Amino acid sequence: MRRTRLFFFALCACLLVGTQVRAIEMLPTFGDIDHIHLPALLVQHADGDQSLQLRAQDTTYIDNAQYQEMVIATKDMVQPFYVTIHVRQWKSVPITETWYEISHSEKKPVRLQRFDSGYLPLDNGDLYLVHLHGNWAAEGVPTVERLTRGVKTIRNSDGARNAHLDAPEVMISLDGVPQENSGRVLGAALCWSGNFEIRVAATDEKGFHFYAGIDPMASEYILSPKQVFTTPHLAYTYSDEGMGGVSRAFHRWARTCGMLHNGNATRNILLNSWEGIYFDITEERILAMMNDIAAFGGELFVMDDGWFGGKYQRNSDDAALGDWVVDTRKLPNGLKALTDAAKDRHIKFGIWIEPEATNTLSELYEQHPEWVLQERGRELKLGRGGTQLVLDMTNPKVQDFVFSIVDNLLTKHPEIAYIKWDANASIQNYGSPYLPRDKQSNLYVDYHLGLIKTLERIRAKYPNVVIQNCASGGGRANYGLMPYFDEFWVSDNNDALQRVYIQWGTSYFFPSNAMAQHIGGSPYLMTGRTTPIKFRCDVAMSGRLGMELQPAHMTDEERAQCTVAFADYKALRELIQLGNLYRLVSPFSEASPFSNQQSPAVQQVASLMYVNDAKDHAVLFAYGLTSFMKQASRRIRLAGLDPNRTYTLHEKNIRVAYHHDRNAWGEGEPCELDGKSFTGEYLMSVGLDIPLSTEYNIDYPSRIFELIVP
Ligand code: DGJ
Question: Which segments of the chain belong to CATH 2.60.40.1180?
Fold first, then answer.
């Protein structure tokens, strides 16, 4: 932490000796850098001039309980063009944020052709880049590659979401192939929900240069005189405890520095209706699902897509988005009957919306065709269901409409405790009927500024409603939107095996209380894979636990296991959701056919744990990913414990067994490690042989242990 702080403040300080100091080391601008380097800021002034030579004018410091901030006011040497550089160092977490405020008083608008949020020079070395690549239903795959000469670029052009495909967070290992719990690693997260571009440039032999910001493609920002453009924040961290150290810093920052709404709170166990009944919502089915989640010991029921529609019914994904009235053909007694029913069952009630979208088959589109993004004179490109369109969030009237969707629901039904906010469309029509013709290229940016403004309004009025950030799964897992949301939907893929991988990568940057992880059905509808209920529970329990299935289809064994899982999860919830994450054995490291650990003779596993700050309470998760007869087990070394303390292991969510005497499923037998005690030193250096063998005669064995200092 100290090193990072010193680094940034030293960097700033050396720039500030005298008013003619060049701001170039913090903000390389086109016109001030040589031909070898890339600019972080490139503008075309009102008179056509393309150069920018910023010089420091004034520096102020903010020092409060939470952070220190350096604010450097700079001005171009020729034009009335200004950039204020901000560098904020959080005190409780090793995170530094940088961003720029750009303004001018030129005679006409200035064109911002590139406007990054930060720049960092890095020494030469054996640098490796880690970034998440993925896709719908396969989010968060860590991609690790050596940085070479030239420019490495990661970007996303979805327009509305930015975490499917490539995501706006990276790590850079300074010491070769990145390690989980050792080695110097830099982390960076661009706090933005729209298109972005991250570049690592080695354009000469002297070192590397890191840049991150809004993607300039089709986004030249037209800045009017006196208008202030604030770039998104770019958050950096540095750790000499490897990738795990970087992750823990981001998690703590998210929870304690306002980067995750209600970041320090724990979340409820819920059942979401989507994969259980899809659009086939009826009052009877919803009430039955509420009965089930309450019976398991769950705390919240969420009614997903399909509950709304007037003239057009929402029976599939091709109609009614925008018509946010209850479909009384499905729910004759309205939402009140459901919120009352939830209350009777002592659970909370939540509801799905997709506020930024409409369908061509909707009353909203009939009434306001001018509210959708569209290119004048061109045929509309249609998204999901062949009819979906994205609303023009640059338009204040649309912002009011989106606000009113939430406001109406919560005013009429203050009992609604949870909203799932979905976003299932990319921007495909690159025009705003609201923005003037000469500012059309502001669309990609102004869309998100409009969205953020609306979310700020919602949060000002409704700080306590829990809102899930969903975008066809994890398409919006980013720190641009997370401050307004309590959690995000990690993936539409609830196959427990693939979830081990998806959740692993996602945890690189996001804390567990934000990661919605649901127990899916088996065989799983997307993959056809059959997994035991214990494995499905254990995988979901490592984050914010929920269910995504039709409980009516569950066997007695599955029901019994979920009841045990929920009870145990409640006891461990604070530790799991707010503890410090240590990833122990990666599913990815062993999956590589080139890895020397890969052998059918040794079981492939994944394992992670959470430890509290006092290091006297921990929880360990271990998953067997392959099972072959007579495979050797894989020893798991723990991390993050106090070497001098003794920890006792208690197995949790023990696999249920059938009790013939009672003709019922009930408590099963724990494994031989249950009740055993070990020192932290032993657990971290020797490790545990966790029974994950084929002895159960099932694939996908798993174990959870609570570790307590007696
Ligand atoms: C996509 C989401 O990711 C799903 O969970 C579900 O809410 C559907 N949309 C509903 O249309």
Answer: 581-708
Strands 580-585 and 646-652: unpaired
Q: Are 246 and 171 in contact (CB under 8 A)?
A: yes
CATH 3.20.20.70 segments of the chain: 270-489
3-state SS assignment for residue 127: coil
* Span 470-515, pLDDT tens digits: 999 999 999 999 999 999 999 999 999 999 999 999 999 999 999 9
Residue 243: HSE in the Cβ half-sphere, 13 Å Cα cutoff: 27
**Residue 86 DSSP one-character state:** E
pLDDT at 603: 83
Q: Which atom of ligand 1 is nearest to the CA of 548?
A: 5
Question: Which residue of 273, 308, 352 sits with most ligand 1 atoms within 8 Å of its CB, as the best mutation to test the pocket?
Answer: 352
| pLDDT reported for residue 699 | 84
Q: Name the pLDDT band for 13 (thresholds 50, 70, 90).
A: very low
For this structure, is 495 an active site residue?
A: no
* Fold of the domain spanning 581-708: Immunoglobulin-like (2.60.40)
The DSSP line for 238-272 is EESBHHHHHHHHHHHHHHHSSSSTTTTS----EEE
Confidence check: pLDDT of 664 > 90: yes
Q: What CATH topology corresponds to 9-256?
A: Beta-galactosidase; Chain A, domain 5 (2.70.98)
Q: Which two tokens stand for residue 590?
A: 């062993």
Q: Mind listing the pLDDT tens digit for each residue in 681-708?
A: 999 999 999 998 755 556 899 999 999 9
